[in-house]
Structure formats: structure tokens, C-alpha cells
Prior knowledge:
The structure holds two protein chains of two kinds. Chain A is built from seven helices and one strand, in the order H-E-H-H-H-H-H-H. By secondary structure, chain A is mostly helical. The relative contact order of chain A is 0.03. In chain B, helix 1 (2-23) packs antiparallel against helix 2 and helix 2 (26-43) packs across helix 3 (53-72). At the A-B interface, strand 1 and helix 2 of A face helix 1, helix 2, strand 1, helix 4 and helix 5 of B.
Amino acid sequence: xxxxxxxxxxxxxxxxxxxxxxxxxxxxxxxxxxxxxxxxxxxxxxxxxxxxxxxxxxxxxxxxxxxxxxxxxxxxxxxxxxxxxxxxxxxxxxxxxxxxxxxxxxxxxxxxxxxxxxxxxxxxx
Amino acid sequence: xxxxxxxxxxxxxxxxxxxxxxxxxxxxxxxxxxxxxxxxxxxxxxxxxxxxxxxxxxxxxxxxxxxxxxxxxxxxxxxxxxxxxxxxxxxxxxxxxxxxxxxxxxxxxxxxxxxxxxxxxxxxxxxxxxxxxxxxxxxxxxxxxxxxxxxxxxxxxxxxxxxxxxxxxx
Lengths: 125, 170
């Protein structure tokens, strides 16, 4: 190689880098043919999934669906009717939001702080 | 398929040397060579010939090696302890005109270990330039970087190798 000879500052031992080589295994060709045959047997879409384009396409799909969802939520009244909120439908019917009191406790609460429960009666005496 | 045979015959040695020098693992390097040949076969129609066939094949091989090395960062595999030449699937072929008084094999092994300790981009440049004998132009095409980058990688690699080979004379 003529260019390398133009590198006068290269140390002599660097020439030994070229003394280390490798050859592919003898069965390489047969293995490559087997790989090609396997790939041909795969459906096209499976091969497409292994390509970087598949990753890019799924990322683009994610961005588009996030954008569409945001747009849908920003529409006036879209999906926000009185009956449409899942939380309201499930918990808010009686405005207890899942913390409905026992009817007896409810009466005690209505009677006010003077009406102590049976447990605290002894203490107040 | 005959084209595949010709590709392997002409470039198989260079591809295997590059892959084994970079990965230091014979089995993984063999896998890379096979995959590179498959990709070349599949991408054959896209090859427009603006680059040499050799640089194209080596470029595919180098890219696959980079992918493997990137993946290795997430596994326990490491190059902290360089493997001996034979363990990496490489072999020693004495160069012509070497001074017989010096133990070329011991020196080559020491140099190989020093090369395998270089950072990935420098190792790649040294292997391509000094092991495979690529010209600067071929390296620019194979690595896909500007000429200045190729030269600076080689210069930094040489500085590191000189430090590692201290005491072995020029």
C-alpha cells in the first residue's frame, strides 16, 4: 500500500498488525443459504417488523394517537356530559363518593354534638 | 447464489478479520459475517456501485459489529481482559521481511492485545488501516466519516499504542 509507506513516523512493530488474520468458517456458505431460505419462509410483515422502519412507524402512531386524543378532549362538551363521567356514574349518584354512612350513624350526626353515642355515655356522667 | 459464493471468496477473509478483531469472539464474529452476507445478498439490487464492493461489504460488517458492541454494554461481556489471538478466532501469519532475531509472534500478540484495548472507534480505524490495508479513501467510505476524523482517530490510536508498546523499539 503506497499511502501507508508515506507514513514515515509509523513504528516498525505496527507492520505486525497485518500478520494477524482470520478466515470465515468452511460452512459459512451453507449457513448463509439456510438463513436466506428461513427468511424467505417468513411472512413479509414479520420481516418488516424486524426493520428499523417498524420502530419509527410505531412511534409515529403513538404521537398521532396522543395528539388525536388531546384534540378530542379539547372539543367543547366532548365526552363531558353529566352522565358521561365514569366517576360520577359510579360513585357520585348519592354524592357520597363511596363513603356512604351507616343509617344509624347518619341519625347521630344529624342530632348534633350533644347527642353522644352509647359508648361515651358513661364518660359524660 | 453464485454471487454469494464470489462475495465470500473475495471478501470473507477481510470480513472475518474485521469482525474477530472487533468482537474478540469467534462465534459472534462468525454470526456477524453470515448476517453481513445475508444483508448484502438482500440489498444487492440497491448497491449502485458508487462505492467499491469491498468497502460496501466491510461497511455492513462494521455496522453489525458496532451494534453487537453497543448491545454488550448492557451485558456482562467486557474487553477488560484481552483474549489471546487464537481465542478470538484469529491466527498469526508472519509478515515478509521481518527481522528474525525479534520474536515476531510475541510482539504481534502484544500488539494485538494493545489494539484490543483501544476505544472502539480507534480500534476500528487501526484494524482497517494496518490489518486490512485499506487506503484513507476506502476508510472514509467504509466508516462514513470525513478524512480528518479518520486521520485523527488513527493518530490518537498510534499515541496510545506507542505508550502500550513502550520498550519494544521503533
